[in-house]
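Pasting as-is:
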Amino acid sequence: MEATTPQTDDVYVITIPEQLNVATSPSLKTTLTDAVSSYDKIELDYSATELVTSAGLRVLLQAQKNVQTSGKSMTMKNVSPDVMEVFDVTGVSKIFTIV
């Protein structure tokens, strides 16, 4: 998982891999857990992402729950139409903040 240096003191940008699946979701889970404990704002950049599976959705939903519980925020950006379709069909697009 590629994580970038915060753009400001409290924003942490994480670049989501081309495929967010059973192979890549454990790494994202670790990265998100660390980010939620250290930063107020997390941005997930989907510019390289073509596929999100149920394993990836589970990690994202857990992260969203942790973010809300801690009073922080998580925003998703550069979501492709294919990934957005997965979010819409599963109903999670109503849960996430997508710009």
